[in-house]
Amino acid sequence: MLLVEDNRNLRLTTARMLEHLGYEVAAVGDGPAAVETFRRNPPDVSIVDMGLPGMSGREVLDAFRAHAPRAPVVLCSGAPEDLVVVAEVAPPVESLAKPYDIETLSAALKRILGA
What we know:
Layout: E1 2-4, H1 8-20, E2 26-28, H2 31-40, E3 46-49, H3 57-67, E4 73-77, E5 93-97, H4 102-113
Parallel strand pairs: 1-2, 1-3, 3-4, 4-5
């Protein structure tokens, strides 16, 4: 699991939630680090914030998909208009509105992983 979130507190909290759900998590705080991490070791699924320093969430998604076209990605944002991009992207992609809790996070991951 790759978690891409620029807000340090939210990154730490979400990583803990994911670990509680049984996922092994690599967490980074910006777009370029996300792309480098993804290219070195593509994860089963990525959670990507739409508002990142260095690259937008959409740019990160496009870079992931250039490397692995069917990479499952959950896009998240506190601004609903940011998540409109989900309708424009080939599956597998999910959206997750901030703030979210562990149940909402788990449900989004189950949907995208088909579990």
